[in-house]
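Holo prediction — fe (ii) ion.
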Amino acid sequence: MNQHVNLPPGLQFPEDIVFTGYAAPVRIEGEVHDLEVIGRIPPELEGIYIRNSADHAYPPLHGKDIFLNGDGMVHSVRMQNGHADLTMRYVRTRKFELERKARRALFGAYRNPFTDSPEVEGEDNNTANTSVLWHHGKLYALKESGRPYEIDPNDLTTRGQSDFGGQLTSRTFTAHPKIDPENGDCVAFAYNCEGVASDEIEVYVIDKEGQFKSTERFKAPYCSMVHDFMVSRNFIAFVICPMVCDWERVKRGEAYWHWDSHKLTHIAVIPRDQGVKAIRWYTAPRAVMQTHTFNAWDDGSRLVLDHFVTASGWLSQFPDIHDPHAHEMPPFGERWVVDLASAGSEVKIERFINHIGEMPVVDNRFSMRRTRHFWFGTNHPESWPMLPPGPKGPPFTCLGHFDEQTGKIELFYAGPDSSPEEPCFVPRSPDAEEGDGFLMTMVGRRAENRTDLVILDARNLAKGPLAVIKFPCRVHEGFHGIWVPGNALGSDRGF
Ligand SMILES: [Fe+2]
């Protein structure tokens, strides 16, 4: 309830689900040294957990907005000798700098330049708010609608937008690149390569020194949101889902994405040794949306895609073309098997994690081959109550661990009014067996308006936290994070 209706409008955020309560913008930058720690941070954890979030710096230009359009705010928790320090900093994107100078929002709706103020015509609207990448000794903040921003891993200050020394040809770069654990290559892609509504996709292989080994381009069947992709030892796979973008709709000022369930969901399979000239297309049995991916693996004749899939688009953010009242469906863990030997183009689907879930993670040292362990965010309403939905839908109350060898799913419940976010797996040591290590996650303490970082034994979630690192304040709910070991950062970073 707005208690200030009689006052003239000033700098004020809308009183809706995106901007109030636990989702309200935080906007605080700074450092907190020597956070409170309950329990003991495992001595093996020497390094930095870094994650990205969308935290609107200014009230939206047109009175409302979606949470995906917030400004990139990166948080890091540096752990050393059992101590933990928090840093939080906005990414100094071109958009952020222009709006900071104007002291108000200048850019309009998500990725729609036709809704921007005339004074920023032609300027880059990239918010750099989705994920972070550590590769070739550099840290980047990523958002799929623009180029990476390089960040200093020590203090999270922005070094500037990057095209990897002139090597990136696309105007965009994915927020979900994959690191090949065998040779350290970063396999990445870009969609909307030519900007708004472009159906061009580029695939990159970047070596561990940051040199592009290859750049290849292909056309998708239609322009769609390609948020994530999959890489096995021998193949790259894209799931093209009917979350479509149409230039005319964008020009009319409508949402950038719409769900079009009359279109098909396609799978592009690209042999890594031959590239896009050998691309093959397959068709899913129904129109569905891939949300995020665990991993892909192949055994020569079969390509297996393990990922979360929903029967609808992200309708809470982007409407259905055919039914504006359609409801968003929850994602489930599915295994899609592509028979590479058959002449057909169909895909076999099995629900291998029968839990609502999202934010999937594997032990990345074993990715691109068949993995045994799977972690994800989830709920279990039969045991623990759901939390009131936020702008992203119902928050997680649990993290899940599926051990495919035992067939068991084990859950960690975060407690009353508590919402874990994406888990991050950290191995106990570089040569520990698959799954032997720690799972860390930010946990929203919603009743206290505060955040914790919780550390669990990755193979024994039900045991509860090994350590809880308490923040004195709330940090905005985030998307994706990574662990950077101290020895990768080097002694000049104090490790
Ligand atoms: Fe994502």
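READOUT: The chain has one domain: 21-493.
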